[in-house]
Amino acid sequence: MAGDVGELREKLFQAVVEGDEAAAEEYTRRLVERGLGPREIVSEVLVPAMRRVGELYEKGEYFIPELVMSAEAFRRSMEVLRPLIRGQGESPARWVAVFGTVRGDIHELGKNLAAAVFEAEGFHVVDLGVDVPPEKFAEAVEKYNARVVGMSALMTTTMLEQRNVIEELKKRGLRDKVIVIAGGAPVTEEWVREIGADVWGRDAFEAVKIVKRMLGEG
Amino acid sequence: MVPSVSVLSRREAEEITGEALRVLETVGVFFEDKGVERIALEGGGRLKDGRVLIPEDVVKEALRTAPRRIRLYDRDGREVAVLGEGARIFNPGSAAIRILDHGSQTPRNPTLEDLKKLVIVADYLKGLKAQSTALVPFEVPAEVKDAVRLYVVLKYSGKPVVTGAFTVENLPLMVEMLGAVREDYAEKPFAIFDVCPTPPLSWSTVTSRNLVDLARLGVPAEIISMPGLGATSPVTVYGAIIQHHAEVLSGIALSQLVKPGAPVIYGGSPTMIHPYYGTPSITAPEAVLISLAYRDLARYLDLPSHTYMGLSDSKTVDYQAGAETAYTAALAALAGFDVISGAGMLEYESVQSLEKLVLDNEACLIAERLARGVEVDPQALDALKEGVLEKKGNFLALRHTRQHYRSEILVPKVWDLAPRAKSTGVPLAELAHREVERILAEHKPPLLDGDALRRLDAVYSKLWESHGLKPVPPP
């Protein structure tokens, strides 16, 4: 039995690394049926798998399409586990992260990837979706007592909206309570400094490392 | 004897059009704005799962009513070109949010003063037949950024302008600016507005409502589809072309539903999304192939065309910048695009450089010369005889040479073609900088004045006041 579980764990790990959504869901279910706790599955299989994906990306062996497919496989696995984790009586995630694509922009690829990576690293992610006005970011920070705000923009014109999100947070006295990540293809480190955001990661994996360090972890 | 670059045969263009029509009928288009969605539905679309399925006959009817040719004028009402006949109107790339100063490695925020300088330089450069609202001034409040840019161009240059609105509210005011300058702006258009669907197959509130307003107001709309290979469109060039075509057709259908005969230009800015960095490379060969292919699709439909080419994804004015700009400018010209936006641009359409603008002007002139091709010279045989038999091979002494060389030969002004002995040894970027300084010191742009300027200033004030802002004095 233990061997069987060990083999399934390995298969789930591979399914996430290889971005096989259907396999990720199936092995997650089978692991649950074998009695492995949902928290163990997340911390001992899914998180290491997403870290492995990050390492492969770092080495240049993985490109963005592989990252996105792994994030999708991770998400499918989490869809199975999330209700069970809730059912176990919550030991809530340590931090809440609010993610969204800024107003005027309806791209969500990068935001979805970042959400998956942050969730894999133990954050409770509130996904606000796309075309999110600054007020909604701020309201979500207040409502969920978030520690992290991630705002994404794909176009140079909508990137300007990121500044407005920070201004809104300042206006409501929330700026110093949160770590702000500005992401998106045209976003540079210099831009992040200029608008007064905190974190620029070349990718979601780098961003999560920086955020955890700022939160006194990792 | 005019060279031409083509990717698709007529039969292939027909096939791809068929595929795009099927996409519109089965996948449909998402309109974020409910009012615009209603226009599409009342025009024959069908709502399914939040997307509007557009039947083939609606698109075909739109293609029947969309104008084949658009005459483009300058600010003063002189005809510049007929769009739809391969007009090759090079113009600076638009809406850069950074400017790179000479000698700097790091772009900075552009100001209104930078935009004014860019407009003056572009006004001088012969390779650029049009202006664009090329920079987004940093110090101007977001509410009025788009329209203030247009004000600067209209005031400081007579060339036609490629522009666009960032908001729904400002577009009518921007059109009012055109009306202030010249009341017959719709009959004799001198401004083109960009509207971009959001890939894949979506229209945001701002751009779709801009498209609707432009159709109502009779101002040419350039529909710029931007598929990003592998990220916001299929990764294959073929798949992205179909998506691109479907997106543009959906825009044409919308504009014609609002007002049959509304002027539209088939445009695009396809990119290859870098599989590692996620950056949108505009000059990647795959992106360029999509552009060349949709030029053939526009030709098949007999519509005016636009592209973002003659620009670079490099971070600085270097070898890569020159190579990418020159090869895309040449291809765009040889493909016979009507409007070619991009001169001066670096870094994925986000940075402008005045020095690059001056150097790109030469690339545009070279591309234009290439595309003009070989003109038949009925005096060629006589000139050859005279040169060999009477002038002993010295064609420099021939009257024929004197008569024709200015019209036949392009002589770059800034690119260094001097012999080593006469070359100053000054790096090209420095020469370009000196040229920028010279133009700014010497060129007197045709400033708008009199009633037209007073009316334009009045709209400028109204623009600020409509947002509850105190107008900053016009630049």
From TrEMBL, chain A:
<dbReference type="GO" id="GO:0046653">
    <property type="term" value="P:tetrahydrofolate metabolic process"/>
</dbReference>
<protein>
    <submittedName>
        <fullName>Trimethylamine corrinoid protein</fullName>
        <ecNumber>2.1.1.13</ecNumber>
    </submittedName>
</protein>
<comment type="similarity">
    <text>Belongs to the methylamine corrinoid protein family.</text>
</comment>
<dbReference type="GO" id="GO:0046872">
    <property type="term" value="F:metal ion binding"/>
</dbReference>
<keyword id="KW-0170">Cobalt</keyword>
<feature type="domain" description="B12-binding">
    <location>
        <begin position="94"/>
        <end position="218"/>
    </location>
</feature>
<dbReference type="InterPro" id="IPR003759">
    <property type="entry name" value="Cbl-bd_cap"/>
</dbReference>
<keyword id="KW-0808">Transferase</keyword>
<dbReference type="InterPro" id="IPR050554">
    <property type="entry name" value="Met_Synthase/Corrinoid"/>
</dbReference>
<dbReference type="InterPro" id="IPR036594">
    <property type="entry name" value="Meth_synthase_dom"/>
</dbReference>
<dbReference type="GO" id="GO:0050667">
    <property type="term" value="P:homocysteine metabolic process"/>
</dbReference>
<keyword id="KW-0479">Metal-binding</keyword>
<keyword id="KW-0489">Methyltransferase</keyword>
<dbReference type="GO" id="GO:0008705">
    <property type="term" value="F:methionine synthase activity"/>
</dbReference>
<dbReference type="Pfam" id="PF02310">
    <property type="entry name" value="B12-binding"/>
</dbReference>
<dbReference type="Pfam" id="PF02607">
    <property type="entry name" value="B12-binding_2"/>
</dbReference>
<dbReference type="InterPro" id="IPR006158">
    <property type="entry name" value="Cobalamin-bd"/>
</dbReference>
<dbReference type="GO" id="GO:0005829">
    <property type="term" value="C:cytosol"/>
</dbReference>
<dbReference type="InterPro" id="IPR036724">
    <property type="entry name" value="Cobalamin-bd_sf"/>
</dbReference>
<dbReference type="GO" id="GO:0032259">
    <property type="term" value="P:methylation"/>
</dbReference>
<feature type="domain" description="B12-binding N-terminal">
    <location>
        <begin position="1"/>
        <end position="93"/>
    </location>
</feature>
<dbReference type="GO" id="GO:0031419">
    <property type="term" value="F:cobalamin binding"/>
</dbReference>
From TrEMBL, chain B:
<dbReference type="GO" id="GO:0008168">
    <property type="term" value="F:methyltransferase activity"/>
</dbReference>
<dbReference type="Pfam" id="PF06253">
    <property type="entry name" value="MTTB"/>
</dbReference>
<dbReference type="GO" id="GO:0032259">
    <property type="term" value="P:methylation"/>
</dbReference>
<dbReference type="InterPro" id="IPR038601">
    <property type="entry name" value="MttB-like_sf"/>
</dbReference>
<comment type="similarity">
    <text>Belongs to the trimethylamine methyltransferase family.</text>
</comment>
<protein>
    <submittedName>
        <fullName>Trimethylamine:corrinoid methyltransferase</fullName>
    </submittedName>
</protein>
<dbReference type="GO" id="GO:0015948">
    <property type="term" value="P:methanogenesis"/>
</dbReference>
<keyword id="KW-0808">Transferase</keyword>
<dbReference type="InterPro" id="IPR010426">
    <property type="entry name" value="MTTB_MeTrfase"/>
</dbReference>
<keyword id="KW-0489">Methyltransferase</keyword>
